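Anyone able to model this chain together with zinc ion?
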Amino acid sequence: MTDKLIRAIAADGGIKAVGVVTTDLTEEARRRHKLSYVATAALGRSMASGLLLASSMKKEGSRVNIHVKGDGPLGAILADAGLDGTVRGYVQNPNIELPPNDLGKLDVGRAVGHNGYLHVVRDVGYGQPYSSTVELVSGEVGEDVASYLVTSEQTPSALLVGVFVGEMGVTAAGGILLQIMPKASRDQSLVDLLESRVSQLSGFTPLLREGKTLKEIMGQLLGDLDLFIFPEFHQVRFNCGCSFPRVLGALKMLGEAELQDMIEKDEGAEAICQFCGEVYQADETQLTQLIADLRRE
Ligand code: ZN
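re: yes, here you go
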């Protein structure tokens, strides 16, 4: 199964729906960052939420950053998702493992922490990014992002995100976002309907694991409400914009004295990208070249 995102409308254009499968990209994040089970679930939910939010942006190059900062042992989580379907992210303490919660599920809420903040930044690529902060509701990520949509963006929304990770790694991940369109936002019966539909679902990953496709899941939720699923599939994937030239650019900013010090003490420099875990090595010759560049400027 390949990761993808689909969009749909229902209820005479009153409901907008987006669904995303992120199984492969969540597995890639798990492997890159050597994430524990609970860290995989927390980051996977954050990345799926980011992709769902980014999918509603209009301008090419738009991105959404979801920053979860709770008081739990995982520390901060950052997911950076683009309208182009790329996403990357990391967890501050990727090794933390916790016993399952009362429902026998990965205890994301306790790992993230029940107290803290969710910070969302929408960046269209120019001007001041739009950013907003809400208090965490539960630390389960999905509920926190849904609360952000309702309180901060004032869009009645229902969001379901999930990650199933076992001994074989991530075998199901993704989510679904249902929103009431502005023209129907005063229609309380539609809002109630939306919430009841989502709460009837046993979760997103159980449906995926049963072999249901995104379209079938959409159909199960909204099939009786004039559902129209747009035929295009949008690919989503883990992708980080880091590169060796960018790492060299960052090293250059350290200045001549620091670079000279790296040459003398370490005979080079090693940089690890926080977002994707990629390791970059700059040797003595490359660092010397950076110093030469600095002197020419
Ligand atoms: Zn990177």
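The chain has ten helices and 14 strands.
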